[in-house]
Structure formats: structure tokens, C-alpha cells
């Protein structure tokens, strides 16, 4: 069986170490890979920050592989990378798209001492009610349904992702979202939330839930008019990168805690 890794080496984990005391941990979304956040990660590195964009377990290989992994596996991989980065950097900023955004919020909830700031791109902490019901019911019987990745208006880089959505893994993800929503008030770090006005994958309700639930005082929301869900690879990716880098630079200039 052909794996995404066999088709595109950029599906593999990405890292860069210019030698900064600030690191950025970047998470891709569900069914995608580091390829979908490569431009974002490279922008952080070009700005002088150490960067790690790991490939989450079960991603970048096959749909069947993904269905054997869970939210706990993906969160565990990011927690391990966060510990590694925090051990030799003054601060770590986490940045994630879609489900990767939910994972980054969970890291901020569980490890406030290690996460200095959070950048979210169309964060997924809930689906619309009808899709949630369908996932819950069909996830018990079907292994997959049509793909959800690749929602782009003017692709700067077409996203390489699975051509089917692994439903067992998605059911696990929705359970992780529930935990994340429950503990949103624990998020006190500075937050930059970037979202698309039109998103065919994650409803606007998801970002609204995040903004309503977090306790952060330093919060910036920016709405993009010419991008769909895959905002880090769509036509406005340069503006996503600029705003994200400026946010991290501001945190980098503040005294380390």
C-alpha cells in the first residue's frame, strides 16, 4: 500500500534550529501532515526561531494506520516534543491548525508553565451538530467516509492528506475536543486566533467557543476573507505567517518567566 510519505518527503517531520532561545512547536491537523504547515513552520524559522513540526502518529501513512491511533497518541507525541523544547529554551510558543489547534490548547491547559503563547488557525474544538451526530453513529460501524482535508480557495500549496476520513480516529478526536472545551478556562497565555470567514470543515462556532471559554487577557482574533479551512496553505498564507511571526516576536521580547 502506498503511503503519503512515499509520495512526498515534506510529509515527514520538519525541524529547524537557528539557535533562538524561543521555540515554536507547530502541529498539523487531522488526516494531514507537516506538509500542510510547512510554509508556516519555515516562516518561523526564517524569523530566527527554533521550530519543530512533528508528524503525528497515524498521519502521513495510510487511513488504516490512522484508525489505530487516538487523541491520546497525538497529544502524547506533542507533549514529549514540548518537554524537549522547554528543556533548552526560555519559552515555547505552540501553533496549530484545525485539530492541531485543539491539541495546542490542550497543551496550554495541561502545561501552563511550559507554554508561553498559543497561535490558532481555524481551531477545531467542535463540529456542527449534524456532523457530530453522524460521526458518533457512523463511527461505530464504518471505518471511513469521504475526505475532509483540502478545503482551499486559492491554494498556494495543495494539501497532501488522506483521501478518506478515518472515522474511528475522528471519534477519538471528538472525545479529546470535549476535554479541551471543558478546561478552556485554564488557558491564560496570550492567544492569536486566525480564522477564515468561510470554512467548509470547521464551523465558526468552534472559534467562538474558544474565545468565549479561555481566560486569556491578551487575545487577538483576525478573520480572513479569501481563504478556506487550510489557511496556512491558502492564498493568504503570507499574512498568516506575518501575523504569527509578529506575535512570537512580541513574546520573545518579553522577559522570560
Name the descriptors.
257 residues, alpha/beta, Rossmann fold, 7-stranded mixed sheet, two-stranded antiparallel sheet, 9 helices, Alpha/beta hydrolase
Provide structural commentary.
By secondary structure, the protein is an alpha/beta fold. The protein has a single domain (4-253), classed as Alpha/Beta hydrolase fold, catalytic domain (Rossmann fold, 3-Layer(aba) Sandwich), CATH 3.40.50. Helices cover 39% and strands 18% of the residues. It has helices spanning 4-7, 38-46, 63-66, 71-87, 99-110, 129-138, 167-182, 204-213, 237-253; strands at residues 14-16, 22-27, 50-53, 91-97, 115-121, 144-146, 164-166, 191-196, 219-224. The protein has a seven-stranded mixed beta sheet, sandwiched between helices. It has a two-stranded antiparallel sheet with strand order 6-7. It is globular and about 45 Å long. The chain starts with a helix and ends with a helix. The model has no long low-confidence stretch (mean pLDDT 91). One of its GO terms (molecular function) is hydrolase activity. Residues 21-234 form the Serine aminopeptidase S33 domain.
How is this structure best summarized?
The protein is 39% helix and 18% strand. The protein has 257 residues and is of the alpha/beta class.
Amino acid at each position: 500500500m502506498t503511503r503519503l510519505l512515499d509520495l512526498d518527503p515534506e510529509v515527514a517531520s520538519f525541524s529547524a534550529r537557528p539557535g533562538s532561545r524561543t521555540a515554536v512547536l507547530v502541529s498539523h491537523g487531522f488526516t494531514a501532515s507537516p506538509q500542510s504547515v510547512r510554509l508556516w513552520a519555515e516562516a518561523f524559522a526564517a524569523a530566527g526561531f527554533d521550530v519543530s513540526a512533528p508528524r503525528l502518529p497515524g498521519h502521513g501513512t495510510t487511513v488504516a494506520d490512522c484508525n489505530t491511533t487516538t487523541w491520546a497518541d497525538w497529544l502524547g507525541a506533542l507533549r514529549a516534543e514540548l518537554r524537549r523544547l522547554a528543556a533548552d529554551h526560555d519559552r515555547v510558543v505552540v501553533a496549530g491548525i484545525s485539530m492541531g489547534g485543539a491539541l495546542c490548547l490542550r497543551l496550554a491547559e495541561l502545561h501552563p508553565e511550559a507554554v508561553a503563547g498559543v497561535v490558532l488557525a481555524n481551531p477545531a474544538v467542535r463540529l456542527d451538530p449534524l456532523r457530530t451526530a453522524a460521526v458518533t453513529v457512523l463511527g461505530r460501524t464504518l471505518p471511513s467516509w469521504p475526505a475532509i482535508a483540502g478545503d482551499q480557495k486559492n491554494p498556494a500549496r495543495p494539501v497532501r492528506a488522506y483521501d478518506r476520513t478515518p472515522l474511528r480516529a475522528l471519534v477519538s478526536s471528538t472525545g479529546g475536543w470535549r476535554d479541551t472545551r471543558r478546561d478552556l478556562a485554564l488557558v491564560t497565555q496570550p492567544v492569536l486566533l486566525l480564522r477564515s470567514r468561510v470554512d467548509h470543515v470547521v464551523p465558526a462556532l468552534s472559534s467562538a467557543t474558544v474565545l468565549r471559554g479561555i481566560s486569556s487577557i491578551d487575545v487577538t482574533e483576525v478573520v480572513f476573507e479569501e481563504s478556506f479551512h487550510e489557511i496556512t496553505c491558502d492564498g493568504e498564507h503570507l499574512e498568516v505567517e506575518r501575523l504569527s511571526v509578529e506575535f512570537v516576536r512580541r513574546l520573545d521580547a518579553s522577559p522570560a518567566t
